[in-house]
Design brief:
The chain has 251 residues and is α/β, with parallel strands linked by helices. The protein is built from 9 helices and 7 strands. α1 links the parallel β1 and β2. The protein is globular.
């Protein structure tokens, strides 16, 4: 059985499926977790579980059942274990329209579920001297109107990354986050369906004059998890096409 393993949440989305392919291409055993499994049959060693991360974050019985499924699918002694918290809940609402459930869902998926997944796999991560990568967002530092719940939960994910690193790094586990700007997923494109010219404008806002692709992001994540020695830990790394350094105000 393959001894190099990756657990990836949000595995059927645009970024998630690119991550799955990147690790399968390197002959990893990949376990995907998604509320809407893709049903895609990959040529490599891939298992996908139907997981509701909202329920996972708040229902201990459900969480333990899912963790048992993941652990049963992993080899007894993984030589390498990578956990990538990629799934995200992006609620876009103006402040007057935000309700408790919006906060609950945002933090459940974006912050709390990543914590409990790492906690539940901690023994295996330590045994494998593994890696945790949390997919954060540029919104954790630089946001815009109507992204209140999303921005706050991603900022909390950055803080969680630093806190986990303090406790897990001495045990050999590296914990980092990657904060991308715009990535060309179907979800992004759908948001510009009625105004495709604005998607082109968005490209121009990035100094790179491009929007990142899921494959580029997956390749970057893969490079981070190839780092040995554990010195890269507790970091939130920008992947933004330069836009995080761009001040946009009147000329």
């Amino acid at each position: 059985m393959t001894k190099t393993c990756a657990v990836i949440t949000g595995s059927s989305g645009g970024i998630g499926s690119a991550l799955v392919r990147a690790y399968l291409d390197d002959d990893y055993l990949v376990i995907g977790l998604d509320r809407h499994p893709s049903g895609v049959t990959y040529s490599g060693k891939f298992t996908e579980f139907d997981v509701d991360l909202r329920e996972f974050s708040k229902n201990e019985d459900y969480r333990l059942k899912i963790l048992d499924q993941i652990i049963d699918a992993l080899p007894d002694k993984a030589e390498e274990l990578i956990v990538i918290n990629n799934a995200a809940e992006q609620i876009i609402k103006a402040v007057p329209n935000i309700h408790w459930r919006d906060w609950e869902n945002s933090f459940a998926v974006n912050t709390i579920a990543p914590f409990f997944l790492v906690q539940g796999l901690m023994e295996k991560l330590i045994a494998a001297r593994g890696h945790v990568v949390n997919i954060s967002s540029i919104h954790s530092k630089l946001t815009k109107e109507q992204f209140t719940c999303y921005a706050a939960s991603k900022s909390a994910l950055d803080a969680l990354t630093r806190s986990l690193a303090l406790e897990l790094s001495p045990k050999g586990v590296s914990v980092n986050a990657i904060a991308p700007a715009a990535i060309s997923t179907e979800m992004l494109k759908e948001g510009f369906r009625d105004a495709p010219h604005k998607l082109k404008d968005l490209e121009g806002y990035h100094p790179s004059r491009s929007i990142g692709s899921p494959e580029q992001l997956a390749s970057f994540v893969r490079a981070i998890t190839e780092q040995k020695g554990g010195f890269l830990t507790g970091s939130v790394i920008e992947f933004t096409g330069g836009i995080a350094g761009s001040l946009h105000d009147p000329s």
